[in-house]
């Protein structure tokens, strides 16, 4: 893409002024040296663990990188999504225990990341979630029952990705980052100002597609915000066994993109950082990498036993940093969240839970012939033959049963 | 497919304008049959597809400035611009995954895998996403992607440059698998693959790239653009040679070998029919069944290692459909179940005229 020769600058780096060299390197990628080195500045945190607003000087921002606070009404709306998201997680886990759903990977404890990822996007923007990002999918406005279709076991996906501009939740790790790159590339070729948020977890950063996606996005200068929720575990394997990089955000440096770290349990910081990243991507300064530090409070899924690989003390420690409690304390202190608002939000969360219960308790009789309908745009003669064979088999079964009951 | 009528936001010339310029240039040239290579037919099909729709984009490794290691995309970047035909970083999964995303957002990507065995890093994206997206979304998302793969042996290539990998793809539900064997089909079938709303793995036999047929590309284009029935190859095998004694079933690089075997058999007084499948998925069971039931004897010819392969599937289907018409067991002439050999050994591996004739001799003829 570019015509500059990186080798020339690198070869003489030892002899020239280090700051000048970094500045030149960063400018080559179209970003400032401050952005280029952001991961080394530490994590952005605007609310402390008790829900107190930190002074600007304490927020971990680099010089020239102050983050404007979202407006009070935006924060209240985001808090509502946070409370609803928590309720969604807990309701779905209960539905799994009751046998109404096959499996549910809960994002309990990561709801601030979920909400920020969905709320930072505009109408023409896309989001590519993982299987743990159902709350983000619902916050983006997708019907809860459509979202849960995958986990209920009716079909592999329940919503139209193009209609909602939300990629399908699927289980292979990290593959969706390349789909995000493709969506962004198509939009760029057509001159559209679409931004794509591509989500993955800490374990996913070890996959080859993580590298390929970040590199493609950087080489083609695409408007993608890679959003890594570092929840410390990939099923049972801790972060230390995935990567010995100083942080996952540091990986951005190698691709020539801006990277940033943020407290993943601080909704305000997440909103500020993600909004800035989306704005920069839209202005042509993408791609960017944002790493959020958070914690998976529950097991990987209902099939997992987290006590086999982590200590309760660690979980307790993270419980004290709960994103919902922190935000509630802050908003109450600011007078934005009064009892009436709290009651209204609790009601919205219960309404969502009840919608999930009703939707997922409804019996759905899947049509076996659907097996063949969507493999291709038109079934091949081979599939039509197999479809007829299954129909015949079912007809024979029905006839046998009728005879047996006679 | 949409064709815009003016230049877009980036100032790129629209398909309609490009097409008018093309047509003018072409009508000036003499439209007479002339020798055309397989490679030229593919190049022309790509150019025509780029002209027909602004949604078509080509990308892969070395396909831009260089025109591809086999020059199949030669001149396309210069003619259509870097936004239509471009090089990517060297990463096959990245190429396939980006194609999936572009297809989700309305484009029709045509990607090149440099060699058959170099496509394997892309298999997760192809098998788990490109093949399944339409089904997973109950038809909401289409994947109009063409994955072009130069494949198979016969060129003295080194390790990892000669695999017959079609069986992997044919085994994966949701992928269409095309394998043209003639120059005319190379043109028609690539146009058809690009216009398909399903993902197509398009196998280009490397040993045929520089083979020639005398034909009129303008007439082929016209026929295709007019939607002529003769331009449709998907699921339509052709009887490449009529015969009465036995039937050879082949596709891609094996068709020319089968044709040569039929020619040699004729000199010995044996009449062999040759069926060219053209597409493996979907498969034309009807033409295969008719051709085998007619002669009562069949040999399946394919370069792929035979075990659990497209060739095995063909034999199974023939015995299911033609059992009572068969005078002898259906035989296979395929590659052996060994890794593709080094250049100096490939002649012992590849199906040859002699090996096909030996198999035909073994079809239990009455004394």
Automatic annotation (TrEMBL), chain A:
Cofactor dependency: thiamine diphosphate
Dehydrogenase E1 component domain location: 83-352
Keyword Membrane: no
Gene Ontology molecular functions: magnesium ion binding; pyruvate dehydrogenase (acetyl-transferring) activity
Keywords on record: Oxidoreductase, Pyruvate, Thiamine pyrophosphate
E.C. number: 1.2.4.1
Protein name: Pyruvate dehydrogenase E1 component alpha subunit
A GO biological process held by the record: branched-chain amino acid catabolic process
UniProtKB/TrEMBL annotation, chain B:
Requisite cofactors: thiamine diphosphate
Domain Transketolase-like pyrimidine-binding per the UniProt entry, residue ranges: 36-211
Keyword Oxidoreductase in annotation: yes
EC number(s) on file: 1.2.4.1
Class in the EC hierarchy, top level: oxidoreductase
InterPro entries according to UniProt: THDP-binding (IPR029061), Transketo_C/PFOR_II (IPR009014), Transketolase-like_Pyr-bd (IPR005475), Transketolase_C (IPR033248)
SMART domains the record matches: Transket_pyr
Molecular function terms from GO: magnesium ion binding; pyruvate dehydrogenase (acetyl-transferring) activity
Entry's transmembrane regions: none
Protein keywords: Oxidoreductase, Pyruvate, Thiamine pyrophosphate
Stated name of the protein: Pyruvate dehydrogenase E1 component beta subunit
The species this protein was found in: Zhihengliuella flava
